[in-house]
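Let us practice reading a record.
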Amino acid sequence: MDREKLVELFYQRGIELNLKNKNYLSWLKKFFQLEYRGDVGSGDITSEAILTENKHGKATLKAKHSGVIGGVEEVSWFYKQHGLVVKIFAHDTEETQEGSTILEVSGRERDILATERTSLNVLQRVSGIATETRYLVNLLRNYTTRVAATRKTLWSYLDKKAVFLGGGLTHRLGLWDSILIKDNHLEALKNRGVKNHIEKAVALASKFVDKVGFIEIEMTNQEDAMRAAREFKRLRLKKPSIIMLDNVKPREIEQTMEKLKNENLYDTVLLEASGNITRENITEYAKTGIDVASLGYLTHSARILDMSLEMTL
């Protein structure tokens, strides 16, 4: 099987995260509505007090550091919903330099200032995640291992979109997307007295193979990973499934991969490493030849790409 093509097929949902997708647009409307209302409340009292004439104005949004730009599509849409005109200087996925102009916004002064913080928050966070993702993707350019996000997100689809813009894989967008059998699922079966709980979980999940993007199971050691792989092969599913090696060190990953090959199981499954993977140790995982490395910190701890909005004449 072509492992790289299957990884792209199973793990990449980023192409769906755009304004042409009605579901994404619906979610985005609610997101911006919540963020904007939470900030403005009953009104921007400072601007109402100071800018009594509310004249037509213009503002420039600039990057204070170099990085990968993300969130332009969404923020431009948001500005337009508030009657503002947007001129784009840097598009999503493009790399920008410190001091470069990202957007130019024109319209009523109060509207520009009322939307400022929401817009900056989105652009800074999405660009920050995209920048860190691009760094990791470049770090692994000589390996076959792909970088993926997890569901440890603050802003759901926007965080996933950010990873996609940086060149990474989105993984699941939500619980509805694909099946991922985790330790709590397995523990629940064990508590019910189910024998061979790993095999049972895989068999139950296999009934949904035609309805989901993929079936994956989280394993924490070589023995359990082998049990899952044997069951996947026994079931002869229409597509390879995924074993996540959670908090498994690179050396044990190598040993597990070797054993899978020896039992002719390697081509039955794709392999993902997850758990405490960082920019400092990710190359050690890539050296094993693992298909995917998923990192929670990409979307819960990545630094923002600092930006500023300045009113101009």
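A brief commentary: The mean pLDDT is 96.
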